[in-house]
Amino acid sequence: TTSAAPDEISFSGQQSMAQSQQSSLGYHALSTQRRKSQNAEAILATEFLLNQSLPIWLNSFRPLPWEHRRVLWPRVKAPGGSSHLGGATIFSDDSLTVDSGETGRSATAKRKSIQEIIEDQELDVEARAETCFLVTFYFTQKLLPAWSAQAKSSSSGTNAQESKDSLDEATSQCISFIQKYGSYLQMQASLSYAAAVRAERIITELLNLALNDVGHKDAWKEIQKANTLMFYNSSKLSAVVMSLENIQHELRQERRRVLANLAVTAYPDIRPWQVRKACQLEGNESSGNGGQDGTEPSSTNTTPKKKNFSKQLLKDLFYTYLSQLLDPMDGHSHARRDLKLVEEYCNLSVESIGTPDESKRLKNFYDIASKTSSTHLSYRRDLVMLLDIAMRIHEQSLALDLATEIIESQDPTMKTYDVLQHLVSSLRDLYRQGVESAKSSEHRDQSFKLLSRIVKLFQRMDRMEKSAETKPIIVVPMELYKILEMWQTDLPPQDGSCHPRMMELIHFLSNNVEPVYMLRMFVLWSDDYDMGPALYGIVQKLLRTGSQSALEHELSGSLLRLKYERVRFNKMNQSNATGIVVGIGDTDTTNGKNNSSNSNNGDDNSMPGALGD
After folding, report:
1. Which candidate, 105, 115, 281, 612, has a CA 20 to 30 Å from the CA of 146?
2. CA distance 387 to 384
3. How far is CA 611 from the centre of its chain?
């Protein structure tokens, strides 16, 4: 079902424009310029319409009261027997027509009298449709955006009382508009926009208005009778929103599933915050970017209070709703791109540890967090948030996978100083856990593998591009020193030598850390501890390995020439040792020919003068 709810409220008018496929760069530049010009003109025209034209026009006629909505928005019987609101080109399901599905003389007489009143307003069918469209347009594009802006400033303002008064004034303005022009408001668009900005009081007033719609009453009866999954269309929106208020009182599981499924299919007309509130998982206090009108919303439900289910049962119901909404195959892609919604789903998934649903819910978390999952690309993932959750549930391998993703990410937001500092702090927590676990011989191999991944990540972070203005993210030798210091705490002191367990860790680190970092670490270690003769061999090996590695990666021309001449010199020594005379420039002065015993010319195997000297 196509929804009228926008991703965000704005004044920009959208104009469709057919674009042919052209290969000329000049055409694309010209079309881009025209498009920008048209967008600017559309914005100016929309602002003129909302700020100057429509306010004057709204005062030019006397609006009809709410009870006349059953004529402006009547029900039409479909051939299959189901009812919906009359169709027209301006509004999809909620549309304007003078037809009605009601029968009976009294209803006909009453309808005619109302139609006569409308005709007295000198409005024909087309004018009524335009009137409803313009009233709804003004409400959703002028009043609700102004309320949303005031709600955001109220949440971040310093003067709480002044902000609250301004928000109350904006709320009263919206409610007054509904009370005056409610007969012309398109219900589905109005509810969708109000849900997008989380205007709870305004939604309550719109639901009171919906009680005058015959389509709302039909949809309400259909939902109350449904025990199996039913299809959703936008004409049922007001009835679905109102039915959600009773979800905590539904005794049968089938009925709760029906309402949860309707809420999923109604997304984004029905937002997750509405389902969360219906499941009593949050209070009425202000939060987010709406619901901050400062007053307790009055319930439109007159049903007597019934027994409520436990909070855990309602939380499970909300989790089921999120699972269907964020399903990678059957859910909504727009919902899977909502970072806050994905974060809430992940947090609820890991709360199940220790319950019968632990394995199933943890799999849902891994499907999002793990890069090995085939569905992780379907979600917009906050790697730092996922890392924090993995650390909280002690999933060390997953945490290291996410840390690697952060380091390899091309997203600039993942390379900020704060993010990298947070990553270093998480890695430090991991190697503390690894060191403590490695003290037990049973877990030593597994813990050493964990430490190996951590120190390699430290080295990769040290090689990252650094800004000259910021402090270094990490000092690898200092981190290695801390690891050795933690390992040393439980070992008995030994004069002139290292404990065998300490030697085991040092051998392990020397095999996984670049020599330059290990040598600098030994410099720090020798200041506080006696290295002992056992470490001299390791230091010598590190020096030799580091020198050889430096020569192998050195691209200097002098070193390459030196290496080449050294090879030739070694060959010459080997030849002299076997008694073969190598002629270096010997010639026969008698016949003017070379008198060399070597088959090759002396020019190829001769040593340069500098090396011979």
Report:
1. 281
2. 5
3. 66
Supply the pLDDT for residue 179.
Answer: 96
Task: Give the helix ranges, DSSP H, for 370-499.
Answer: 383-392, 396-408, 417-438, 444-462, 476-488
pLDDT in tens, 422-433: 999 999 999 999
Q: Distance between CA atoms of 238 and 216, rounded to whole angstroms?
A: 7
**Residue given tokens 């003067």 in the structure block:** 159
The alpha carbon dihedral of 295, 301, 304, 310 has a sign of: negative
What is the dihedral sign for C-alpha 284, 286, 292, 293? positive
Tell me what pLDDT residue 73 has: 86
Tell whether the model's pLDDT for residue 309 goes beyond 50: yes
**What is the pLDDT at residue 121?**
52
Sequence-distant (6+) residues with CB within 8 A of 201 are 171, 175, 293, 295, 297
Cβ count within 10 A of residue 461: 20
Candidates 143, 240, 259, 247; CA nearest to 201 is 143
517: left (phi over 0), alpha (psi -120 to 50) or beta: alpha
CA-to-CA dists, residue 234 to 178, 189, 231, angstroms: 20, 9, 10
What tokens were used for 540? 């010598």
pLDDT in tens, 27-41: 455 567 777 777 888
| For residues 49-65, average pLDDT | 91
Residue 295's contacts (CB-CB under 8 Å, 6 or more residues apart) are 168, 171, 201
Residue 62 has pLDDT above 70, yes or no: yes
**What does the H/E/C string look like for 19-76?**
CCCCCCHHHHHHHHHHHHHHHHHHHHHHHHHHHHHHHHHHCCCCCCCHHHHHHHCCEE
**Amino acid 161: pLDDT:** 77
Rounded Cα gap, residues 214 and 373, in angstroms: 48
Q: Is the pTM of this model over 0.85?
A: no
SS (H, E, C) 432-469: HHHHHHHCCHHHHHHHHHHHHHHHHHHHHHHCCCCCCC
Structure tokens given for 459: 């080295």
- Mean pLDDT for the chain overall: 78
For residues 262 and 111, the answer to whether their CB atoms sit within 8 Å is: no
* More confidently predicted of 497 and 573: 573
Q: Are 584 and 572 in contact (CB under 8 A)?
A: no
Q: Which two tokens stand for residue 452?
A: 């190996």
| 91-100, 234-243, 353-362, 383-392: the lowest-pLDDT one | 91-100
Residues 271 and 332 sit within 8 Å (Cβ to Cβ): no
Cα 396 to chain center, whole Å?
22
